[in-house]
Specification:
Rad50/SbcC-type AAA domain-containing protein; 555 residues; 54% helix; coiled coil; Rossmann fold; Helix Hairpins; alpha/beta; 6-stranded antiparallel β-sheet; 2 domains
Amino acid sequence: MRKLILEKITIISHSTKSARQFEFGRNLTLITADDGNSVGKSTLAKMIFWSFGCEPFFSSGWKELDCSSIISFSIDGEPYSIHRYKNEISLRKYGQPLKVYDKITGYFAAIFAELVNFDVLLPKKNSFDLEIPPPAYYFLPFYIDQKRTWVKPWDSFSNLQQYSKWAQPVISYHSGLISKEHFVIEEDIYEVKAQVDEVENNINELSSAVAILKNNIIQQDYTADYESLASEMLKYEELIKYNLEESSKLKVDIIGLDSQLKLAESIIRELDKDYIFSVENMNEGSIECPTCGTIHENSIAHRSSILIDKEKAERQLSLLLNEKLHLQDNLTDLNRMLLELKEKLLNVQLAFESSNSKEFLEFTTNNVDKQVEVIVEKKAAVLETKKVKEKGLKKTQKDLITKEKRSAIKENFANTFFKYITKLKVNIDASLIKSPLDYNKIYEVGGAAEDARAVLGYYLALYEHISEHCHEMVPPLVIDTPNQQEQSTENYNKIVEAIARGVTENKQYIICAMQHSALATLSKDAKIIRLDERKILSASEYEEAKDLEDQFLFI
């Protein structure tokens, strides 16, 4: 058996500047007091589980103390410590750096679950996503709360309903009816479930859309001229097409004119250069071209011809510019007309689409209906495939543990439970309790005192069953106030004997109880934590505890 052993807990109140440290016995710890029930026995038990990230039911007065805690423990002999303040939790394995988590769920829950071999995965509410639950679900079978557990099963912590269907998988895992591999397949199942849900939603949405469209057709008054509107649309589409063709021609002409303008401008620049060059060399009868070496005449007549050519080129440039402006004006007009035509076409289209044309709507709806039928048929085939896959995965999951082995596990628990209720003298039909999942049947077996003994028998049997047959780390069993409902001295003696029966070197028990002669046998071998009027916290221990906390967090 692999186990989690508690060693000590330090509790610090920051509002009252008080603290206390408690050490636990290796096998048995008895938390007791001489007088009254208000000295903190239950609160100390609750603080054990709070330190690990659970949410016990504290009194409002305790919550106001603004406490932090450090709990030291070992897992298979490896020492660990956890510090918690509000929802910030820190974990340290001896000799390794501190790991700090800003919440209990998520990363810390995953790390802790791995440490204690708690392999359960639970679906988030309204989701198909599985996640590792927080430590409360691991500690549930190992804590009998002073008030709640004695009257309601598996209810020692708050916030358990964050998962809607947690009880069966959690109890089944603790009792060995399902394994780690079960949850590996569960992830595949939920992935398929998400796909099935998506396909079903798509089919419903498509069917609803068609139904709404058909309903609108039935309710409308049909008066519009369908053919006239269609003719108008065709007319404007033709005009727009013609406009675009004319605009395209104009753009081509403008591009051609731009090329001619560039050529004319280039000719003018060259003629201007020729004239300047000839004037600068007017004393000579001829000149040599500086570029190609050709001899040109440089007479007055020749220079005049250059000016005449330049003037013709400039007139040509002016004509080209005027023609370009004219074409640009025509293009602007066409663009304006295009906008007007598009606006008119849009208006007709809107009138056509929103018209009361029964023929058009029925035609559209019938086409949509047919298309939807084809899509739905395809999706229905996909849906059936997914459901077959889900069914196959569930069968594989069920076959992980044979029917014979499952029956053997249930029988082992039932036999152990029978031994305990016989010892506790509980008058119950033991054949009703066939597995740990039958926990509801142990309540209301008789009077309140007998019900309490039946509950104790169930938890003692479950603890023994988990210790001997399951793979998770087994923590201490914490029993708060076993003397429930004013048990007779004889029955209380039997309660103590039943608890003592399970105390061995391989298990750790923590019992919270008032001083009573029946506890004498347990007290001999127990670590005694005796609370007095100081209750849990003491101002004299605050500074030492605060130094310990600072060292844990910052060194």
